[in-house]
Amino acid sequence: MPDLTVARYDVFEHTITAKVDGNPYLDVEFWGVFKHANRTIRVPGFYDGEGVFKVRLMPDIEGEWSLTTESDVAALNDQTANFTVTAARQGVHGPVSVRNKFHFGYADGTPYLPFGTTCYVWTHQTQELQAQTLKTLETAGFNKMRMCVFPKHYPYNENEPELHVYESKGDGTQDFDKPVFDAFRHFEKQVAALGDLGIEADIIIFHPYDRWGYADMSPEQDYRYLRYLVARLAAYRNVWWSLANEYDFLLNTKPMEMWDRFFQILEENDPYRHLKSIHQGNPELLYNHRRPWVDHVCIQHPDVQRTVNWRTDFGKPLVNDELQYEGDIIQTWGNITAEEVVHRFWLTMLKGGYAGHGETYSREDDVLWWAKGGVLHGQSPKRIAFMREIFEEDAKNGLTPFEEIYHSGYPWSSIAAARDGEVSYFYFGAHRPVIWSTGLPLEDGDYELDIIDTWNMTITPAKKVAAPVSVPTRHGDVVRGGEPDAAFGVELPGKPNLALRVRLRR
Amino acid sequence: MPDLTVARYDVFEHTITAKVDGNPYLDVEFWGVFKHANRTIRVPGFYDGEGVFKVRLMPDIEGEWSLTTESDVAALNDQTANFTVTAARQGVHGPVSVRNKFHFGYADGTPYLPFGTTCYVWTHQTQELQAQTLKTLETAGFNKMRMCVFPKHYPYNENEPELHVYESKGDGTQDFDKPVFDAFRHFEKQVAALGDLGIEADIIIFHPYDRWGYADMSPEQDYRYLRYLVARLAAYRNVWWSLANEYDFLLNTKPMEMWDRFFQILEENDPYRHLKSIHQGNPELLYNHRRPWVDHVCIQHPDVQRTVNWRTDFGKPLVNDELQYEGDIIQTWGNITAEEVVHRFWLTMLKGGYAGHGETYSREDDVLWWAKGGVLHGQSPKRIAFMREIFEEDAKNGLTPFEEIYHSGYPWSSIAAARDGEVSYFYFGAHRPVIWSTGLPLEDGDYELDIIDTWNMTITPAKKVAAPVSVPTRHGDVVRGGEPDAAFGVELPGKPNLALRVRLRR
């Protein structure tokens, strides 16, 4: 037996070739029992076609590991392997999970701040286009990708996929008992490629944009598909599970109790507890993300002012993956300006959530980034990347919006502000006071004060000035605006879309 | 007796000089009974100082009128006068009242669309500044003014008024049993001056910005002041009653039952039923405008997307008088850009409400338009005037937002749209589709299609194009976006802050 090694958080894979009659996708149960010292992890294996069975592990600790397989099929039972897990490769931080209630972090302790984008069916396009998408992502600055397993039928998405996920019956529909193994292998290759770029793959398991029957599989086929997907993909450290895009438009064939069961299947089969969520369509009918099997809130909503309320209501990290997209198509969710996208990103972040990007510029060739990838044409991505750098620079425990820190809602319903440790951020949007002091430190000190132009991407030192003198504003009032007086103020240039960063000099 | 004449909707005034002992402001009841044919209107008279008593009428119909006075004071009882009411002067349309549930109209049937501004205490500034304010208003394009009876103490408002409303006790407080008649005469002169400019005077009766004791008058003094104000001012056709600015910050001295009583005193004393409302401070604690004595909803709120919901909830015309002001002061309600003001005006209007303006640019001399008047420095007023022209051109019954016309909320939660008769308006804000068809007519016809650039103030014919072909968007969907397909589309230039007007060619 060769001396097998795998780096921590990479994929260990064990393969067994065995001749099994019938349809092993339907009939064969096969497990791998991995051991490290006294610890045991039992993970589902899967059939990969042509007599090949596989079981995978993402080891989370260095040292000596062993594998023993379990199956009712003799050839798949009691097979063993031993391997050594070495240190994680440079830049590999492990899977992302929830940290500090409203935030995320990698397994190695590095904070993870999602700045995601969306290319729903990029893995179903031509090889050339997929290569171009990966090349774009190398430098675009995004660290999460929403992507579907199934192909997509929708405006601007009328092409056939390169590979269907299940075998074609030849009449435009598929046989959902017969996976196309090449399709799954290809999908996981692209998930791995994203992992190599430091990008989390937010995998959309079901969706309603369908002409081939994927949305009409039987419950049994749905459950089997889900178990199979988890068995194949859970060992990839960058996997997130998004049960559906716009799950509410699938309720006609998949009632609410099925969604509960889907979440449970993820829990039963994924030993790593990758992040699980679900995405809704109707902005007024959010999924009840308080349910215990939901790890973080995924939301589609343009009114990002409500971010702090959603966060409070659900008590979990919040990602608004569709605050509407930069573009110019007729669909209203896909035609806002880059300026508005950047504005909504800053608002969302400083109200304690995280925002997601998408791009929908109409094109003769129907290659819109949001669905197919390719290249980016918009003006928001570089501003989002600039923003990501700013927040990663001082990320510690995650942002707490001022609405949660102060008793008074004013002025924080208009000026978005948040704090992480000793660093505070203010985002003024359409507000452009020429002096600001509310929410600044109550005691003077050696603060770095920086004006961030969120659109022009500049960071300029702010001038410290005396805090404006309080004048009672109303009958009976003793303090201005309900906030205690700050020790000082800052001068601002009277322009919109500015942010202010206040941090103790280190 | 001279042959008295007064034009319809102007003020008829009858004066009696009589020596009355004591304090006639407190002690004398005095009424005028006006008759036209078999119709009788009984209106309160008032004491105007130095033995002068007056009673006023705004006659609403042409013809012969008579007056007989009533009082327990003999000299004020059974006095008579006759007068002739002639046709209304050119440009005089009478008082404004509610029309078509959510809208306003003048007594002569002309639609009235409020495009108001705010100079809270302009009548308390120097004569020069007041003259300048009126001169500015001649061409500014506003047709409503929010203004306080009492002077104001607040940041940027630390000067003493030219005249106090009650006699000074010499210790910084006033004797609220002794009116300064010159102050009231001056106030009504300025109300009349606004009327001559076609501007409604939205008179703010109480407010909490006080250092002189106005906010601490006894209930008896409050009630008497209110009756006196109505007796003096109700005959001015352009009067609106705003019980308070930020009434909720006065609840410590004036509990809720007093506000009910204030409304009732207006009802009991104002024979013309001028529009009555009340303005709140806390954006989350709106006054219950469903109460029967409220004519229209006055609101202070930056989240103008909610306009259609407020309108539905209260079932009355809605005026958002403070959607935040153009300016650059530290107070968040007073530092938004002109662009944002114009944006919120369009949103408010196309969601079935009306918007109000204010301007708060910080100045060395503390002369901010919002409080003191003077000249306008901002960029929003001319865009608001441009907008007013557009909507007055086709005003008929008032706008109904598409949310109330169509069953589907999409896309009307993002694209504001409304219809008045056969004219439809769409406002795209940060959305800039290059083709639009949703909500356009279902049958083709000879439509004028105009693109309105709300910021650059241009109106350009739009190119009619084929409506985009429907592709089912989702599993089970038959129509795109839940709306029936329009007969045609329009090409748009891909810029933000555009509006589209669709009207049948006349």
Considering the chains and any ligands shown, give keywords for the structure:
506 residues; alpha/beta; Immunoglobulin-like; TIM Barrel; six-stranded antiparallel beta sheet; five-stranded mixed beta sheet; 21% helix
Question: Quick summary of this structure?
Answer:
2 copies of one chain form a homodimer. With 506 residues, chain A is of the alpha/beta class.
The CATH topology assignment of the largest domain in chain A is TIM Barrel
Q: How confident overall, as mean pLDDT of chain A?
A: 95
Largest sheet of chain A: 6 strands, antiparallel
Count of structural domains of chain A = 3
- Which class do the helix and strand fractions of chain A yield? alpha/beta
| Level-1 CATH class name of the largest domain in chain A | Alpha Beta
- Tell me the name of the CATH homologous superfamily of the largest domain in chain A: Glycosidases
Weakly predicted, low-confidence segments of chain A: 478-482
Largest interface by Cβ-Cβ < 8 Å: A-B, 61 and 61 residues
Mass-distribution shape of chain A: globular
Q: Which CATH-level-2 architecture of the largest domain in chain A?
A: Alpha-Beta Barrel
Number of distinct beta strands of chain A: 32
In oligomeric terms, what are we looking at? Answer: homodimer
Strand content bin of chain A: 25-35%
N-end to C-end Cα span of chain A: 54 Å
Helix content of chain A: 10-25%
Radius of gyration of chain A: 25 Å
Helical segment tally of chain A? 10
* Strand order, largest beta sheet of chain A: 24-25-26-32-28-29
Pfam family, one (chains A, B): DUF5060
Protein name (chains A, B): DUF5060 domain-containing protein
Organism (chains A, B): Devosia subaequoris
